[in-house]
Design goal:
Blueprint (H helix, E strand, L loop, with lengths): L12 E2 L8 E5 L2 E13 L1 E5 L4 E12 L2 E4 L6 E2 L3 E5 L3 E4 L8 H8 L4 E4 L6 E3 L5 E4 L10 E3 L1 E2 L2 E2 L5 E7 L2 E5 L16 E17 L9 E2 L25 H5 L1 E4 L2 E3 L11 E15 L1 E2 L3 E2 L2 E9 L5 H16 L11 E8 L5 E5 L3 E15 L3 E4 L2 E9 L3 E4 L4 H5 L13 E3 L5 E5 L7 E3 L16
Parallel strand pairs: 1-3, 2-4, 3-5, 4-6, 5-8, 5-9, 8-26, 9-27, 26-28, 27-28, 28-29, 28-30, 29-31
Antiparallel strand pairs: 6-7, 10-25, 11-12, 12-13, 13-18, 14-15, 16-17, 17-25, 18-22, 18-25, 19-22, 20-21, 20-22, 23-24, 32-33, 33-34
């Protein structure tokens, strides 16, 4: 039975069956295991650490579609290579996932509790000053509208405005700069809507002053404002019982999984999503009614009905294509950058890659076997006696003198000066390509039939 994993994996160990439609977030060094004969597939793996590394310890195979690395604090993405050690089981690089069909997107969107879209000009009701009084749900029936902020029926702060051509040629709703303590008369704004406990959410948004601590989602009333508490740089800035659901949810920024207590949102537009939160919200850009503003929103979609991973990714993919003009990372081929790939004693050195992989240093015992349709390049080998390419491509750096020098005899027809022919193009002798003096020849004293010849390919 296939199972899709949904959640934030902040532990250093990972063990579960999956179907490849999953992302994970782990701290280095991360340990993986799989049941014998099974493959644990992770479409997108975010791993944080100064020198990110994973180990496959036992059982079946671990297949990763895409590596994305973060700094030691998990606050920002880097492009660091990953080290992989295999002491049991196997390691593979998987092909990217297929893009979801439009029908899957529409089916998932039909479950939304609230869907606000700034690219739909008919969804706004403006006041006499040209400010937004109501942001209507894009659906003509049902759904939840957002209304410019009120406290006890009285408007406070200001109302948001429309920022034209804010992103990818489309408009966004501008809530002004974050206000200070106390009610403010500046341009800070918020909107209220019918509250609910939301399992999944998608927000195409930009923090106008990165790190301001402005709330994107909030809950006015009792302790609800804590559910998505900010107050600093990360996506969630408060770690206590009230924020526990949101913290333990899966969070992705532009399709890559992050830790909500660690990842710093910058001042650009991003597709920010969460799954599995079950946290309450009833406002945009409102911190307990005393602070507001700080964000621009292009689209907001909230669900009280939980989505599965395929549905969640379908909406992410749609939003990324629409607003960022970018593909979803789990659906995008990316060459896996591996610093060291080491196979332990007694472990078959099998490089299984259906996508590109670049390895700086590979070590193991016996025969190195290349499987899968992807192209793999290796810069340095140690302990490997020979190479067998069953599928795809394997390129070895020219510095493999140690491996080739250990060969008893090396025939390389591309080295023209090693092939001696007669006047009719028949091969009389082939010299060792490594120049060790050995050669193969056709005996002039024995007639076994036709001579071999040179074929040009």
């Amino acid at each position: 039975m296939k199972r899709a994993l949904f959640g934030i994996f902040a532990l250093a160990a990972f063990s579960a069956a999956a179907d490849g439609s999953v992302s994970a977030y782990l701290a280095s060094p991360a340990e993986f295991s799989a049941q014998s004969g099974e493959t644990n597939a992770i479409a997108q793996l975010s791993i944080k650490g100064q020198s990110p590394s994973i180990s496959v310890t036992s059982g079946g195979q671990i297949a990763v579609g895409r590596f994305d690395t973060l700094d030691a604090y998990g606050s920002a993405f880097t492009d660091s290579p990953v080290s992989v050690s295999v002491s049991g089981g196997g390691f593979a690089v998987a092909a990217p996932l297929e893009k979801q069909e439009n029908a899957a997107v529409e089916s998932a969107l039909a479950k939304a509790a609230m869907h606000l879209d700034a690219s739909d000009g008919d969804s706004f009701v403006f006041d006499g000053d040209g400010k937004i009084e109501r942001w209507k749900d894009v659906r003509t029936e049902g759904g939840i509208d957002a209304v410019a902020g009120t406290v006890d029926g009285t408007y406070v702060f200001s109302r948001p405005t429309l920022a034209e051509d804010a992103i990818n040629g489309m408009d966004a709703v501008d809530f002004g700069l974050r206000s200070g303590d106390g009610f403010s008369s500046d341009d800070a704004a918020f909107m209220s809507f019918e509250g609910g406990f939301f399992s999944n959410g998608f927000m195409v948004m930009r923090e106008k002053t990165a790190g301001s601590g402005a709330f994107y989602l909030g809950g006015v009333g009792d302790w609800w404002y804590y559910q998505f508490h900010r107050g600093g740089l990360p996506l969630i800035g408060w770690d206590d019982a009230q924020t526990a659901n949101a913290i333990n949810a899966m969070w992705r920024v532009d399709g890559r999984q992050v830790g909500p207590l660690e990842y710093y949102i910058d001042g650009d537009f991003h597709v920010v999503s969460f799954a599995g939160a079950g946290s309450f919200a009833n406002t945009l850009c409102n911190d307990r009614g005393s602070r507001a503003g700080g964000w621009q929103f292009a689209e907001v979609i909230l669900f009280t009905e939980a989505l599965n991973e395929d549905e969640h990714r379908a909406i992410e993919s749609m939003l990324m294509a629409k607003w960022l003009d970018a593909p979803h990372p789990a659906e995008t081929a990316k060459t896996a950058k591996i610093d060291t790939l080491s196979f332990g004693s007694g472990v078959d050195a099998i490089v299984d890659a259906d996508a590109g992989m670049s390895v700086t240093s590979l070590s193991g015992e016996g025969v190195l076997v290349k499987r899968g349709g992807g192209a793999v390049s290796v810069s340095s080998l140690s302990g490997i006696s020979s190479v067998s390419v069953e599928e795809g491509e394997l390129s070895l750096a020219s510095s493999f003198s140690g491996l080739l020098d250990s060969a008893f005899f090396h025939v390389d027809a591309s080295a023209a000066d090693t092939v001696v022919t007669d006047g009719d193009g028949h091969v009389l002798r082939v010299d060792d390509a490594g120049g060790n003096g050995r050669y193969a020849y056709v005996s002039p004293n024995v007639n076994w039939g036709a001579y071999p010849s040179v074929a040009t390919v």
